[in-house]
Amino acid sequence: MLARSAFRAARSAGPARTAAGKTATRSASSSSSSESASQWKNTIAGSAATVAAIGSIAWYYHLYGRSVHAMTPAEEGLHPTNYPWEHVKFTKTFDHQTLRRGFQVYREVCASCHSLQRIPYRTLVGTMMTVDEAKALAEENEYDTEPNNEGEIEKRPGELSDYIPSPYKNDEAARAANNGALPPDLSLMVKARHGGCDYIFSLLTGYPEEPPAGAVVMSGLNFNPYFPGTGIAMARVLYDGLVDYEDGTPATTSQMAKDVVEFLNWAAEPEMDERKKMGWKVMAIGLTLFGLSVWVKRYKWSTIKTRKLVYNPPMSKADMNPSSPRPGVKMESNNRQS
Ligand code: HEC
């Protein structure tokens, strides 16, 4: 049916095609002015339509097609190097020796300016300290008690459930002490910055001895190519040998930066070790269940997949003949006879 109608369509298109061919030949050989004018119009209309189409696509691309950045790449700062962080790998955990060193760097260097508000002392237990060490550390600070019967608030030594205290009472005090710049809280810093660990490591180790020739550094700021805008209020803080590691690791600038960055990664993502372990369990169980489900599917479908459909042709008159040995039953022998 389809083939036949297609054939008919082709046949009817035949004369039309020849007619069109003739017209084309005729107008090409004609010198009539009205015909050449209409040809002109056609050319103009075609060109105008093409220009309009290209124009609207260009206008649309101009409006919606480009990605827009608030800053130029130069203003964004230098993109940090990709470092092969061991703890980021699929099968690796945090190096807890590193965390302990990183926390030491935070406490001895960064804590004088940066808070770590979301980290209570109890989370240090088992990850980088013993209970006694963490308790002793908490007790170094004083915290407000609940109001007593007279409504007075007293002071008590810190406990494991207390949070690491901030260096400043509030943001205003922090700004006042830092030339107007606010040292941000570091608890979630690794997640809060594009580039995460790479960025903070590059930032801490990226202060040049001198700003490059031609760079404009405003007073009170320091040149760091990794910081957006290149002028950062934090001066270089890490210098070789600044801290004394108890495990004897040489405290080079990059070693301290690496340790503190991994520690900050732990602060932002303390569940990482647990999460990876859970991930492996999920994958193992998931794969087993998937394998099982494939087997069950094949098992359940096996009867359907292996059955054979046989076509029994309708019975002929000879089959109906009551004198045949079994009337109404088609015999193998007369299958193909009628
Ligand atoms: C003397 C005070 C001071 C010390 C010590 C200090 N910082 Fe800062 N830090 C600042 C200030 C101020 C800023 C805000 C900079 C700005 O906005 O220009 C800052 C900003 C930062 C930022 C955010 C950069 C950004 O992209 O916004 C990070 C990360 C940081 N510091 C990490 C550290 C680490 C890690 C240490 C310890 C090794 C440390 N800082 C020690 C004062 C300090």
From TrEMBL:
Keywords: Electron transport, Heme, Iron, Membrane, Metal-binding, Mitochondrion, Mitochondrion inner membrane, Respiratory chain, Translocase, Transmembrane, Transmembrane helix, Transport. It is found in: Mitochondrion inner membrane. Its cofactor is heme c. Gene3D superfamilies: Cytochrome c-like domain, Cytochrome c1, transmembrane anchor, C-terminal. Residues 97-250 form the Cytochrome c domain. InterPro entries: Cyt_c-like_dom, Cyt_c-like_dom_sf, Cyt_c1, Cyt_c1_TM_anchor_C. Residues 1-36, 141-164, 315-338 are annotated as: Disordered. Its EC number is 7.1.1.8. It catalyses: a quinol + 2 Fe(III)-[cytochrome c](out) = a quinone + 2 Fe(II)-[cytochrome c](out) + 2 H(+)(out). Belongs to the cytochrome c family. This is quinol--cytochrome-c reductase.
